[in-house]
Amino acid sequence: MKHKTFPVVNSDDEKYAQEKLKKYYQNNMIPAEKKNYLTDLKKSEGPFLAVESPSEDEAHYLMDAASQIATLGLGFNPPAFYGAAHHLDAWLNKEEGQFETLRNAYDSFFKRKLGWKSLSTTFCHSGAEANETALGYCYHNRKRKSSNRVLAFEGSFHGRMMVTLSATWNPAKREPFEWEDFKAVYSPFPDSPDGQMFKPFPEGWRDLWDQSPTTDWTVPEGLSNNDPLLEKEIQCLKHVRNNLNEGKIFSIVAEPMQCEGGDRFGTDRFFTALLLMARSYQVPVIFDEVQTGYHLGRDFFWHSQFKLKDEEGNLLAPNYVTMAKKAQIGIVVSHDNYKFEEEFSTLSAYRGYLHAMSLDQSTEKVLKLEEIALKNLNRYVEHFSDFVENPRGLGMSFAFDFKEKEKVADFIKLRFKHGLLYYPAGDKTLRFRLNLSFTEEDIHFLFESLSAIAVEVFEGKLSQLPKVTQSRGRKISKIFNWQNLLLSQRLLDLKGQKKKTENELLTEIKTLIDLPKGAKIFLIQDENFNSYKDKIQKLQEEVYEPTRQTSSEVFELTAKDPKGISLAIEKDDQLLGICFSSPLKNYPLERGLRRDPSFSDDNCFYMVDTTISPSLRGEGLGRDLKYAVTLLAQAKGIKELNGRNRDHMASSMFNINLSLGGLERFYIQEDYPDFENHRDVIYYSAPTKWEMPQNNLSEGISSPLGVDDIKPEFIEDQLPCAINKICLSNFVSERFLSHVKDIFDQLPQDLRHGYTASGQSECVDKLVKILWHKIKEKRTVHKMMTFEGHFFGTGSFLSRSLSLPHEAYFPTSVLPHPAPHLEEEVLERIEEELETGDYLAIWIEPLLQKTMERVSLSFLKSLKALCHKFDVPLIYNETASQMYRYGEDGYFLSQLEDVRPDAGLAYFGGQSAFVFCSDNYFLEKPLMMISTWDGDEFSLANYHLAMNSILNNKDDYLNTKKEFQKKLMSLLEKYPTSHFNFTNGVGNFQGKIPHGISKFLKFKNEKFLVCPSWTAMKRFLNNK
Asked: What predicted TM-score, i.e. pTM, was given to this entire model?
């Protein structure tokens, strides 16, 4: 194993970053809460986060022993994540291309992991949104319409949106924003002090809790049998039952292992009783697997480890499972099909799927990591037993407690000094989250550094600070170069531009592949196959047992096919590696291939075999050969490289296929007739060619970029943040901050304060929290006012209360949309309502994103005057009205002084949005407004490119809008259309139009919606 030296961060790096951060904190643009390091994602590697240093050509490193709080299950820059970038719809944030395959594959995967026969998934932006969405489903489906409370557990953490925050136990996080009428109900959590999850069930345990609604129900005396944990579980369950009897609970939400509460383990016995009791009371249960899911433990889902069964031995499942973190987006899995409107990042959804598949193949690696970590942990706790206790861990997580909780802060203060990143949990615990990139050597460095910190904290002795650490070299820069070449060739092919020939690619391949000294790489074809036939057979025999060897006839068929690609590596007359592929139809007897809808397509290939000599195993040659074949396939115009991987037993090759965008097309159970533990096969498809997407004239908000905007240099610049999702609440790059500043600069000076966010719903919740916190001394009201058809997202109870009146949870007055003929009447209604003094804020879309209808400037001016008169904040959702869509006088409408709001929000597409507000409402205190991700750098950079294109070519952009509207109107005049509502190139209309036009548009509520990106308008105009 080749080693690499990683220079450890030092105080100079911190000072360097502090100086740069100052200009972004000036004038309270954003809270001064980011960690004092600037990230360099391209140089980050495995468990090490790279940060900028004063020597700008050299990065320094932090060991991320929190894995960005369980978001990075594979570490930084894992090859598998590049696969997300191989899908064009991921760059454009569109749900087309392979996205339907992704959804089907995800559903199939979740069914296997959960054991559910059927399910429905909802995608959203974050863990908080996933929990608020699941809770919203519970509220929508509640059996008792008077039920309005959530039951959670002491020590819980479920997110920072208003309802999930009310269900989060930590008073410091919850109480500043808590609304008295909407508090959660808490029950104690019976955690297992020794971390043991499996406990014996008393006789009749399941039947006891199934019968809990019975009027004369009691717990038999002596049931706890002097078992303190069992007694604690019984008391907790009785507390839950008492609350269920009151009829106010519409949902129970629980973490299978409480993470932020201090890594507190619940038992199979407790959760079995909880689910049985909730089922009897017809109250749904949500298992919050936001942090514990995706293999934090030994199973893919933490709760699967409990093997939960009901009294008849059937699977005992929660009603909803939520996930995020390693899922890279928020996901809700449900038994029913009811679904709120989705808003999420397509790229992140792909990356989360790749994460899931790669982690699922790695159970043995997870168990080995656990073994190494717990061995070191137990030794550490034993050595410092006077000060720390309760070592516990499972899978990729471990924690320990301090006997004096004050020492936690001392450990936190010293973490960066020793080159580590970790976090506290509860009031006395340090928690750690490993990932599969950690080696045994990395874990030793972690515990050596923790020991040095312990000596300093407990004994007052200073240790020598680490300057460097050694770890396995992961060839990150080489993989980046491979992937950048693969993607740039796709893009050039898509645009019909000159791309490299096969010979040019072979020359480039030789520079990228690390061949052993004296070895050569070459093509095996018809004319030279016979010379290598015996050598191929010898290599097969060297690597595989007889049942797994590919026949010589198959190799010959592949090599002699004129379209086939067969690469080989040879040294000293010995084959060291091969990779063979040709059209699918050549292999009709391979199991499963005839099920492939692409079977008869000459331009869809089957990956026959990739074999590397044992003498070169672990050097990455298998990956290099597969990448080389993919490049050559692209040059030939091949559309797909498809293949079979044996589940769990071909994990290395499967990860390579994932890194090329491979998606499960179908799953073949019991495919291998042998006695191995894993006999199933994943049949995958990896696209090698980008198809020009359908132009769409309705998706300018969610998809601000078009194909013409994407250049090879942009791909190269975006790749590091396309494959590395980090917590922007903590660590940011200067690139990200400069993009944030550029967006704020489009607002008037007095509105250049705010926060980044993941989507519209998160913006709404952040705005409500700052308003509440700033005005609570003057009033205690929390009622909101908005207008029919105005949209603010559906990912939280607050946003749904504004957007979906029939789903309202918080008090909200919904007035008629102020159409021109209703303006005076609506203004009168507003004044009557404001005179009651009941309102926290008025929320309005100047341009409605669901209809593209405008609210007039005169109405907005009068509305602002009323808000000023009654001292009620006016909030704009500028999602639709940005980009000069409302008018030519301002990129945001908020630039116009006469109608300027007090605060607002805007969604940028993907997983990026921001909140802006005046100084009166800005909450500058650090960490008060954070969410885990606070958006996504990739999505923000996409939007920033679209914004800069407009700002730098404003006249051209505005002229394009005029020409677009003129051409569209001229085209529509030929058909029976009516009710045109167009201004500045956006609007809606009704009527009957041919599919040749309607395919470009969204149709909803009997109207065609027109809201194109600039690129979409240009494509439409250039289509003669």
From this structure: 0.97
